[in-house]
Amino acid sequence: MKFLFSWLSTPYYFNPSVKFKLKIGFYFGLFVFLFLYVFKPFNIPSLVDLILEYTVLLGVITFFGVFFMLYIPALLFENYFDEDKWTIGRNIFVILIGIILIGSVLWYFGNLFKSTFGIVGINYFTFLAYTFSVGVIPLLFFVFINEKSVREKREKRAKEINTYNKEKLVKKILIPKITIYSDNKKEKLIFKPDDLVYISSQGNYASFFIQENTNLKEKILRVTLTKIDTELKDYVNVIRCHKSYIVNVNFIKDISGNARGYLLKSDIIPFSIPVSRSFSKQSLKSLLN
């Protein structure tokens, strides 16, 4: 049981691409059509000359249903579908809800199709049982294999990056300190670039974590990360690695990876900082000394 909960909380990749969702919908629709048409389970042979039309109908409905489940809920429940919090458990929950909803739609239109030709339809719960028997095992197997494959690929790449050695070129800073002003220009924060460890976004505010002696001090300013990134563009060691984080790469000691993406680790930062998937392998290499 402990292993199961651990597996369900494993980071997983949620792809926000509309093209990807259309592709997944197409593949699942095609799978449903081919499976039903070729193997003809669940009393489908009773349809005789209508088998092709019936299976095509279910395949098309599956395509639209899968795309709907991948696209619409992510728009309505942004916090739940946060890419940085996505796990296998959340993914499986969406799959199970999707199977119930899509199965219900398939049952309705399938029986409507049959009734047009005077054919008796299938009981709703029986049809859902059929739908689960066809969909759950392949989908869970796909999630398991996909997470394992992507995680191992990222772990291997992270290992390659960590063993990569190159000299880091640091642009000479002409000023000993940097001044960042708040959006309303009424407040400001002054610090040495070398003392900045990382910056995180807190809504309309940014939290600056600055090293003072051996301690990490947090200082808050009402300013966007985009503006900060622009102000720090001349300091090459300070990089915006994620929509919510800016880091000083001098403090990054290790990179790890999982199915969701890459993580930056530091001796002074108490947690791992995520890296945007838009970062290339070469960009990741430049993050390490």
Describe, in plain words, how this protein is organized in 3D.
This protein is an alpha+beta fold. The protein has two domains: 2-162, no CATH class; 178-285, OB fold (Dihydrolipoamide Acetyltransferase, E2P), CATH 2.40.50.1020. Helices cover 47% and strands 17% of the residues. It has seven helices and ten strands. The protein has a five-stranded antiparallel beta sheet with strand order 5-4-3-7-6, with no helix packed on it. The chain has a three-stranded antiparallel beta sheet with strand order 8-9-10. Strand 6 (238-242) and strand 7 form a beta hairpin. The protein is elongated, with a radius of gyration of 26 Å. The relative contact order is 0.10.
Structure keywords:
2 domains; 10 strands; alpha+beta; three-stranded antiparallel sheet; OB fold (Dihydrolipoamide Acetyltransferase, E2P); 7 helices; 289 residues
Which geometry do the CA atoms define?
elongated
Structural class: alpha+beta
Cα-to-Cα separation, first versus last residue: 41 Å
Domain count: 2
Unreliable spans are: 165-174
Query: What radius of gyration results from the CA coordinates?
Result: 26 Å
Count the beta strands.
10
- H and E string: HHHHHEEEEEHEEEEEH
Q: What helical percentage do the residues reach? A: 40-55%
Roughly what is the average pLDDT, rounded to an integer? Answer: 87
Biggest sheet descriptor? 5 strands, antiparallel
Strand content range: 15-25%
